[in-house]
Automatic annotation (TrEMBL):
Keywords: Cell membrane, Membrane, Transmembrane, Transmembrane helix, Transport
Taxonomic source organism: Escherichia coli
UniProt name for this protein: Putative carbohydrate transporter
InterPro entries for this protein: MFS_2, MFS_trans_sf, Na/Gal_symport, Na/Gal_symport_CS
Alphabetical list of CDD domains matching this protein: MFS_MelB_like
Coiled coil: none
UniProt lineage: Bacteria, Pseudomonadati, Pseudomonadota, Gammaproteobacteria, Enterobacterales
Cited Gene3D superfamilies: MFS general substrate transporter like domains
Gene giving rise to this polypeptide: yicJ_1
Xref: Pfam families: MFS_2
Gene Ontology biological process: carbohydrate transport; sodium ion transport
SUPFAM superfamilies per UniProt: MFS general substrate transporter (SSF103473)
C-alpha cells in the first residue's frame, strides 16, 4: 500500500478516542471506590473483592474481544464499528454505575456488581478495537509515531478533563445531594466521551488491509499464551494499573478523612496531571538517550521508592505530599510505554496483543 500523510484532523480524531476512554477510565479509577463506600454505602471489603473479580474477568474478555474484532467484517472496517456502536451503551452503563437506587444492602451489592461488571466489559468492547485501530490507519512508521503522539497527548488531556472537573460538577449539580451530584457529573462527562468517540469514528479510516484470518480463536489464544514476552508485558500492565488504582483511589480518602479538606483533592489531581504532561514530554528524549527497557525499569524503580516513602510523610505535611504526587505523575507517564512484537509463530496478533 502506498504511504499516505495523515491529516491533523485525522490524528486529532484518533486521539479523541483515547481521550474519551480516559475520561471514563480515570474517573472510575479515582472516584468509584469512594463513591461506592461513602456515597452508596457499600462495605469496602465487598467493593475491593468486586474490583478484583472484574480485573480477573478482564484477563479473559480483553484477548477474546481482540480476536472477535479481528474477525469483524463490515463496510466500516474491522475496528471502527466497535468504537461507534459501543459508545452509547458504554455511556449509559457508566451513568447507571454511578446511580444510587433505594435498595437493601444486598440489593445494592448486587446492583453494583452487575453495573460495574457491565461497565468494564463495555470499556473492553470500545477500547480494545480502538487500540488496534491505530495499526490499520497507516503502515508508515513515521506516521504511526505521529499518530500515537497525538493519541497520548489527548489521552492525558482527557484524563485531566475528567478528574479535575468531576468534583466541581458534583458540587454544581448536586450541592449537598452528593448522590445526585455524582450521577449528574458522570452523565455530563459520558456525553462528552460519546461525542469524542463518534468524532473518532467519522474522522478516521482503515487503510491497511490485514490478511484473512485462517486460525481459530482457540489457536490464537494458545499462541499468545506461549509468547513469554506477552506474559511479561501482561503482568507489568496488571501491576501498573493496580498501582495507579490504589494510589488514585486512596487519594480521595486521604484528603477527606486524614487532611479533613476534601476541597484540595482537585489541587492534588491537577498537580499529578501536570506531572503526567511533563513525563509525556520527557519520554521521547529519554528513550532516544537510553534503551526503552532501561528507562522503564529505572522510572518504575524510582516510582516504587517514592510511593513507599509517602507512608513516612507526616499526615499534616501536605506540601511534601504535593511534591511526591508531582514526581509520581512524571515518573508514571515517562515509564508507561513498552512495545510487544510478533507472537512466537511470527504472526501479527495486533488486535489481541495491544489490550
Amino acid at each position: 500500500m502506498k504511504s499516505e500523510v495523515l491529516s491533523v484532523k485525522e490524528k486529532i480524531g484518533y486521539g479523541m478516542g483515547d481521550a474519551a476512554s480516559h475520561i471514563i477510565f480515570d474517573n472510575v479509577m479515582l472516584y468509584m471506590m469512594f463513591f461506592y463506600t461513602d456515597i452508596f454505602g457499600i462495605p469496602a471489603g465487598f467493593v475491593g473483592t468486586m474490583f478484583l473479580v472484574a480485573r480477573a474477568l478482564d484477563a479473559i474478555s480483553d484477548p477474546c474481544m481482540g480476536l472477535l474484532a479481528d474477525r469483524t467484517r463490515s463496510r466500516w472496517g474491522k475496528f471502527r464499528p466497535w468504537v461507534l456502536f459501543g459508545a452509547l451503551p458504554f455511556g449509559i452503563v457508566c451513568v447507571l454505575a454511578y446511580s444510587t437506587p433505594d435498595l437493601s444492602m444486598n440489593g445494592k451489592m448486587i446492583y453494583a456488581a452487575i453495573t460495574y461488571t457491565l461497565l468494564t466489559l463495555l470499556y473492553t468492547v470500545v477500547n480494545i478495537p480502538y487500540c488496534a485501530l491505530g495499526g490499520v490507519i497507516t503502515n508508515d512508521p513515521t506516521q504511526r509515531i505521529s499518530l500515537q503522539s497525538w493519541r497520548f497527548v489527548l489521552a492525558t488531556a482527557g484524563g485531566m478533563l475528567s478528574t479535575v472537573l468531576m468534583m466541581p460538577l458534583v458540587n454544581l449539580i448536586g450541592g449537598d445531594n452528593k448522590p445526585l451530584g455524582f450521577q449528574g457529573g458522570i452523565a455530563v462527562l459520558s456525553v462528552v466521551a460519546f461525542m469524542m468517540l463518534a468524532f473518532c469514528f467519522f474522522t478516521t479510516k482503515e487503510r491497511v488491509e490485514a490478511p484473512p484470518t485462517t486460525t481459530s480463536m482457540r489457536e490464537d489464544l494458545r499462541d499468545i499464551w506461549q509468547n513469554d514476552q506477552w506474559r511479561i508485558v501482561g503482568l507489568l500492565t496488571i501491576f501498573n494499573i493496580l498501582a495507579v488504582c490504589v494510589r488514585g483511589g486512596a487519594m480521595m480518602y486521604y484528603v477527606t478523612w486524614i487532611l479533613g479538606t476534601p476541597e484540595v483533592f482537585v489541587a492534588f489531581l491537577t498537580t499529578y496531571c501536570v506531572g503526567n504532561l511533563i513525563g509525556s514530554a520527557l519520554a521521547k528524549p529519554l528513550t532516544d538517550w537510553k534503551c526503552k527497557v532501561t528507562i522503564f525499569w529505572w522510572t518504575n524503580a524510582l516510582l516504587a521508592v517514592i510511593s513507599l516513602a509517602m507512608f513516612f510523610v507526616p499526615m499534616q505535611a501536605s506540601i511534601t505530599m504535593f511534591v511526591f504526587i508531582f514526581v509520581i505523575g512524571v515518573l508514571h507517564q515517562t515509564g508507561d510505554t513498552y512495545p510487544v512484537g510478533n507472537d512466537v509463530r511470527y504472526r501479527r496478533l495486533r488486535r489481541v496483543v495491544q489490550w
